[in-house]
Amino acid sequence: MGSFGAEFERECAAAVRAVAAAARLCGRVQARRVLGVALTKGDKSPVTVADFGAQAVVAHALAADFPGDALMGEEDAAELRDPANAPIAAQVVAEVREQLPALAPGEVLAAIDRARAEGGSGRFWCLDPIDGTKGFLRGEQYAVALALLDAGEVKVGALACPNLPFAGAPGCVLVAARGGGAFALPLRGGDAGTPVATRVAPTADGARARIVESVESGHGDHASHERVRAALLCATPSVRLDSQAKYAVLARGDGEIYLRMPTSADYRENLWDQAAGARIIEEAGGRVTDVDGRPLDFTRGRKLLGNQGIVATNGALHGAVLAAIRTLRA
Ligand code: AMP
Ligand code: MG
Hints:
Blueprint: H1 9-32, E1 39-40, E2 46-47, H2 49-65, E3 70-73, H3 78-81, H4 86-99, H5 105-113, E4 124-131, H6 133-138, E5 143-150, E6 153-166, E7 169-177, E8 182-188, E9 191-192, E10 196-198, E11 211-213, H7 222-231, E12 239-240, H8 245-251, E13 257-260, H9 275-283, E14 287-289, E15 310-313, H10 318-329
Parallel strand pairs: 3-4, 11-12, 11-13
Antiparallel strand pairs: 1-2, 4-5, 5-6, 6-7, 7-8, 8-9, 8-10, 13-15, 14-15
Helix pairs in contact: 1-2, 2-4, 2-5, 7-10, 8-9
Adenosine monophosphate binds next to loops.
């Protein structure tokens, strides 16, 4: 493993290993099965065998590397312990044990349940085992997203994007530590290769900007995004992709603007949907705020309670995007 040029060298290396291992489980589940939704959560979002399995793999790896660290994860094993869901629990256990044969079945569920941290301003890791589950189910973009937070800052962010190409082959990992720059690595069959520094694209011309947004119209307000695009005189149609792969696209210089304007006044973003991507985009030379230009406040528990929506850019276009949003919301 090469150097990430950062204070958090050991954390970066561990995060890359963990997200790559989880991506290997996701890829195997995807290759092997006709994917069905395993469970539907209270907020109606789908969760699959791979979501639970990926969380177990990352939680287990972090417990070994940083036994004192807390972990916040999107999933918990409560529903898997319901006897009605025993067949799904058995599949999760089988998938995880294929990769980690030394784990007993009970240890798989216990690993999933390790991820119970509620956040705040201490040191904790934050995991979305499959960000963009809908993209995963469609065979499109998804990401394993892991961040380390401390003192209200995202210190490390790592994203495995198994369907984003790197040097022509599918699978890319992005990793960044605060102050150390952002790096991209190939994800080959679940093992990460040599890191190369990555930067946002420099364009300051809104007309030449490339905008990315969610596939799901419920997650970002496509109509408002179109109005921002028109205000910037941007000629290129927006590209839709699931998950924090949108941050990865910007950090690699393959797009300049990520818009996530709220679809409802009361929705607040989950920490695990933004933390890793936010660190990566800033270390790649970009900027991230909410739609009002406020910095993201990661200290408020599991959600960004002090923010609404997300605007991420290459930096050069940030002011123009926020000005366009201000005008159309006035
Ligand atoms: P994306 O792949 O960018 O569409 O984002 C997927 C994430 O959107 C999921 O992990 C959910 O946590 C999150 N999500 C669910 N409902 C909403 C909503 N109303 N607005 C924004 N994000 C949402
Ligand atoms: Mg997510």
